[in-house]
Design brief:
Blueprint: H1 25-43, H2 58-63, H3 68-94, H4 99-111, H5 115-125, H6 127-145, H7 151-174, H8 177-207, H9 214-270
Helix pairs in contact: 1-3, 3-8, 3-9, 4-5, 4-9, 5-6, 6-7, 6-9, 7-9, 8-9
Length: 271
Amino acid sequence: MEAQKPKAQAKPSKKNNAPGIKNASWVIAICAVIAVCLFIFWFGNDMHFDEDGHPQNIWGTIYKGGFIVPILQTLFLTVIVLAVERGIALSAAKGKGNIAQFVAKVKKCLEVNDLAGAHDLCKKQQGSVAAVVESALISYEKMDKDTVLTKEQKIANIQKQIEEATALEMPTLQQNLPIIATMTTLGTLVGLLGTVMGMIKSFQALAQSGAPDSTELSTGISEALINTAFGIATGAFAVIFYNFYTNKIDHLTYAIDEIGFSIVQTFAATH
């Protein structure tokens, strides 16, 4: 008689507590299309130049920055779009209420062994912190009913469940942040490349025999300055947003660690 294979338990579907853009490549592609269209049809429009081709306003001056400008604009727009996306995602991950108040209320429920009340708080709060707490509470109740494992094993299982739930939430919180961090360096380097290319054009104009070509000289200087400005702006915004969102993630992680420690300590004290 063949031994029956144990049926695989159906895994519950994981709700996305930090919604966001899963693949940022299409964001970069769309930003590149927008940047090229702006460069050609707006910055390069004839109304921004006089009859001799000299820029009449800031838009024409930007156009004189050369082909590096749309590349820098792509990086700049990508930083802005992903920064807005991370703001929305982390706001959803935080949940509907104040994290500190939520943690304090869950602690009070645990102190009086009101697990049902703690579950209700998680359902109202939602978000990544609530998801980890909900998972820990389920493990808490399971270990509470278990009569086989030792106390130390039960505590270890609860800790393991908290760690696994946290590990599932962290990638969604940090999603797309590495791209923003990359833009910090990439924007500055591309801007520096444009600056060098602009200065090369300027020195070529100065190196011509006779009187220097003022048009070529001004064009080279404009290209250098415009690319420098875009590169600095891209790097600055990327640094600001990266540090800001990293700090928000640290606060969420601290809240998860705090409530996880409280759940484990409560179980150890009451069993």
